[in-house]
Amino acid sequence: MLENLNTVNWHQLQHAYGFADDIPKLLQELVFVENRKGRNEILRELALRIDYQGTVYEATPHAIEFIVQIIKNRTVKGRMDVVGVLANLYKGGVFYDNIVDDDTKKHQNHVNTAVVSYLPVYLGLLIADPEDEVRVAIATMISTFKDYEHSITPVILQVLNTEKTPRLRACFVRGLWELTSPDLRYVSLFISIFNSSQENESVRWASATNILESNNITRTVPVGDT
Description:
Blueprint: E1 14-15, E2 18-19, H1 23-32, H2 36-50, E3 51-52, E4 55-56, H3 60-72, H4 79-89, H5 93-97, H6 102-116, H7 119-128, H8 132-142, H9 149-162, H10 166-180, H11 187-195, H12 201-213
Antiparallel strand pairs: 1-2, 3-4
């Protein structure tokens, strides 16, 4: 892991505070830190450099490969928090449209491309990672990749069909709506889940939230008694 870290010319790349030659040390520390307080401090320092107040930099896309390597390694503590840093790097929709500076938009294009290039990795983690927290973080992140809905939706439906843990099921239900809205093709599924007496309350309420957000669908389709 991180074997190619030193092949990047970090000293020639810029982040929020200047040259990015401090990025390798932060990434290496992130792998080995044991306590959450120390890990959060490292993540904070990393995020401030590569995604300062929502702005990404020349060095940011080069860090993504190594952030993904850390997330994949099951021996690393607190991987869900690392996913959170990665998720914040991807900016689509209205967030992207609000970028006005040409250089910033160029850097954001490179970052978005780099983040999404690892989509097969994220889908693999969503299906099989042993940590529920990681799967929740991954589901939350990829639900924002609306341009890639055709690749993500079948996998969310797959895990939703097999997953039994209520918290994960609720997350997948919400993620499916976030990813596919305002398209209404899964509203019938949400209604079925909401009406199921076998579903946990958290899953039913996730479905109810989707229904209520779905273009006033409750005006025309009965969802049953609560």
